[in-house]
């Protein structure tokens, strides 16, 4: 049977409360009975002694047990709450006043009688009930002597059978039923009150569980369903609701990131297939032409075909190297080995590699300041790769007669900023955040740019992140682009 939290709490409360009520009721009845017996026994403690002292038949010694039986009968008529017995020094019941068959015992244990005679303060003390083999009752007792000879004991049961029967009938008719009614009413009231309280306390949990079930049915999509607002910081249910809300939001973000990553992966595979297929097809075509024996080619044509094939091979090699480099960056397999180096020397080395290409396009490639004496801490190979990619990218997107400047700026705070700016075609503002994604091609990319596979900027960003640096870009269509990244400066001492 599937029970809700509210039902489990309600049934648990009922069972525990009934058990506690039973214990309290039993304990209270026991305490009431003990207190009643204590009071009654103390009240009638001297009863037997007074009867012995005031009655000549007993005081002078007992010889006529029939007369004593009649006396007991008379006393029981006057006091129906008492039963009178005379027992010998060994505990044998010698005489009493009762209907035949009522007295079940022939002997009683004298130990409680002697204890009460010795110390009357130990009440309540219980002795054997002659009318029941298993029961004990409070009593009053007095020794009976004939001169100095102990003849026996006057044993008076306080609250005898007639008293118990009458009392039980009264209780059965009045107080017992009244107590049961009060107990039932208390149970009912507490049950209803606790059910209301439990409903109040468990309603937020039930609501939260229902909302989570709806979100689960919506495949954990927060677009179709959301949790209610949980604003009470001192309430555990609200804290749980906020935690689940944060968790579901995180799951939703991860789902979207996975979808975006899968989309980018498919686009990457498409671009890679295209980028690899284009030079490979060109290479295959030229090699097939060169391999035709019946086709007569001049020395110049053959050399031209070989040069183009070599360029395609070089492009394939460069693209494959970039793919492996980017894969290693994303898998965390690239390690950084920082060292202290002169930034100016590294920049001039990189610029020297592209001087011929820049001169061929009549592009002015310069360094500012001309005396670039700055010491930085970085991985020299990774930093050279970043500068080469940015300068090469600037040359490819700068038209003939343009300018490219590598500028180093010392802004203090132990940081240097390196800018690679050009007067090229520029980039659309809405594309600035996407150009660092692998294989993204801006709308203003020229043919030369497409042949690079679109991996250069992604590699630059990954390498700089490993060196705890961040690259930013500013651009304006038709006016040029500026890439900037920071480096920690080694302070001279």
UniProtKB/TrEMBL annotation:
Q: Does the keyword Iron apply?
A: no
SUPFAM superfamilies given in the database record: ATPase domain of HSP90 chaperone/DNA topoisomerase II/histidine kinase (SSF55874), Homodimeric domain of signal transducing histidine kinase (SSF47384)
Query: Which parts of the sequence belong to the Histidine kinase domain?
Result: 271-491
Q: What is its EC number?
A: 2.7.13.3
Give the matching CDD domains.
HisKA
| GO molecular function per UniProt | kinase activity
Q: Which segments cross the bilayer?
A: 9-27, 176-198
Q: Which UniProt keywords apply?
A: Kinase, Membrane, Phosphoprotein, Transferase, Transmembrane, Transmembrane helix, Two-component regulatory system
Keyword Membrane listed? The answer is: yes
Q: Which reaction does it catalyse?
A: ATP + protein L-histidine = ADP + protein N-phospho-L-histidine
What is the protein's given name?
histidine kinase
Source organism:
Pseudoalteromonas neustonica
């Amino acid at each position: 049977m599937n029970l809700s939290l509210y039902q489990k709490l309600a049934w648990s409360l009922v069972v525990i409360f009934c058990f506690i009520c039973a214990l309290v009721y039993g304990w209270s009845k026991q305490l009431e009975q003990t207190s009643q017996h204590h009071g009654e026994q103390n009240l009638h403690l001297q009863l037997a002694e007074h009867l012995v002292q005031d009655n000549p038949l007993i005081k002078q010694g007992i010889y006529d047990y029939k007369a004593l039986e009649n006396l007991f009968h008379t006393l029981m008529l006057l006091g129906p709450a008492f039963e009178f017995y005379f027992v010998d020094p060994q505990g044998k019941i010698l005489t009493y006043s009762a209907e035949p068959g009522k007295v079940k015992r022939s002997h009683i244990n004298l130990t409680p009688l002697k204890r009460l005679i010795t110390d009357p303060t130990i009440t309540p003390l219980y002795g054997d009930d002659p009318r029941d083999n298993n029961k004990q009752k409070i009593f009053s007792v007095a020794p009976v002597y004939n001169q100095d000879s102990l003849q026996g004991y006057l044993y008076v049961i306080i609250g005898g059978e007639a008293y118990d029967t009458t009392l039980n009938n009264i209780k059965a008719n009045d107080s017992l039923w009244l107590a049961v009614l009060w107990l039932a009413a208390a149970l009912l009231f507490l049950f209803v009150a606790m059910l209301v309280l439990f409903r109040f306390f468990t309603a937020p949990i039930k609501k939260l569980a229902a909302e989570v079930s709806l979100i689960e049915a919506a495949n954990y999509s927060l677009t179709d369903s959301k949790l209610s607002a949980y604003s009470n910081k001192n309430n555990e249910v609200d804290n749980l609701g906020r935690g689940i809300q944060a968790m579901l939001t995180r799951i939703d973000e991860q789902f979207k990131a996975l979808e975006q990553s899968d989309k980018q992966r498919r686009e990457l595979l498409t671009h890679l297939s295209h980028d690899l297929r284009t030079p490979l097809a060109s290479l295959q075509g030229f090699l097939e032409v060169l391999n035709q024996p019946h086709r007569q080619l001049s020395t110049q044509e053959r050399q031209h075909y070989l040069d183009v094939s070599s360029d395609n091979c070089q492009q394939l090699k460069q693209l494959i190297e970039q793919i492996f480099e980017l894969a290693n960056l994303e898998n965390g397999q690239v390690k950084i080995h920082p060292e202290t180096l002169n930034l100016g020397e590294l920049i001039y080395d990189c610029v020297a590699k592209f001087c011929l290409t820049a001169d061929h396009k009549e592009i002015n490639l310069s360094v500012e300041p001309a005396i670039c004496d700055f010491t930085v801490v970085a991985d020299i190979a990774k930093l050279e790769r970043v500068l080469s990619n940015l300068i090469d990218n600037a040359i490819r997107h700068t038209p003939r007669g343009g300018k490219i400047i590598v500028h180093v700026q010392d802004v203090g705070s132990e940081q240097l900023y390196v800018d690679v700016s050009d007067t090229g075609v520029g980039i659309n503002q809405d594309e600035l955040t996407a150009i660092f994604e692998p294989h993204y091609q801006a709308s203003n990319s020229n043919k030369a740019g497409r042949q690079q596979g679109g991996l250069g900027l992604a590699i630059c960003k990954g390498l700089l992140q490993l060196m705890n640096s961040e690259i930013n870009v500013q651009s304006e269509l038709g006016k040029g682009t500026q890439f900037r990244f920071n480096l920690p400066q080694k302070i001279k001492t």
